[in-house]
Design brief:
Layout lengths: L7 H9 L3 H23 L2 H18 L9 H19 L20 H20 L2 H12 L4 H8 L3 H21 L8
């Protein structure tokens, strides 16, 4: 079995036995996803970089206790969420969020449509940021990290029914905010 085809769970088993190369492979596979998740949670790229690295140190420490009840990526995002929340609780100062990533416009769109999409995207991002933390996190995991309802429940440590309820109310609030701001559903 090559390193490219070895499963994440097999790599965690190797990490549990002290294999540093397995940690490096898991880092290469999952660092970007963990980093992006933490950056959204904290609003700081610098904090995200530090926390993402800590997640892989924690992987090294906790690998012997990994029971495989969830995917490795879900487990890592759970560790990342806990670490991000811990750092945010310790830091009482306000963090200035990084600029939203610039979206690459579709080359077939006219400049007017591109501008409309950018405006609506920025508005939607600000509406998501204004949601209560429990709703914002569910939306972030679902739409920005592609997590399933089950995986979100595992990351957050809540029942699937609670995830669905939070998702329902978050979407409802986003729809109402978009309508109040004069935006139609869907893209231009």
């Amino acid at each position: 079995m090559t390193a490219a085809t070895e499963t994440d769970r097999a790599l965690v088993d190797r990490v549990a036995k002290g294999d540093r190369a397995a940690v490096r492979l898991l880092f290469m596979r999952h660092h970007a996803r963990v980093y992006r998740f933490v950056a959204r949670q904290t609003g700081s790229e610098m904090m995200a970089d530090d926390i993402a690295n800590e997640v892989f140190l924690e992987l090294w420490r906790q690998a012997p206790g990994f029971e495989g009840r969830s995917e490795v990526s879900t487990w890592l995002l759970g560790i990342a969420r806990f670490k991000a929340l811990s750092v945010l609780r310790k830091k009482k100062e306000d963090w200035i969020g990084d600029d939203d990533a610039a979206q690459v416009p579709d080359s077939a769109d006219t400049p007017e449509v591109v501008t409309m999409k950018q405006d609506k995207g920025a508005a939607l991002r600000s509406f998501v940021d204004a949601l209560p933390e429990e709703h914002r996190t569910v939306i972030d995991l679902a739409y920005y990290h592609g997590q399933s309802v089950t995986e979100i429940g595992e990351v957050l440590g809540i029942p699937v029914a609670t995830v669905k309820t939070r998702m329902f109310y978050a979407r409802k609030k986003l729809g109402e905010a978009l309508k109040a701001a004069g935006y139609d559903r869907g893209w231009p």
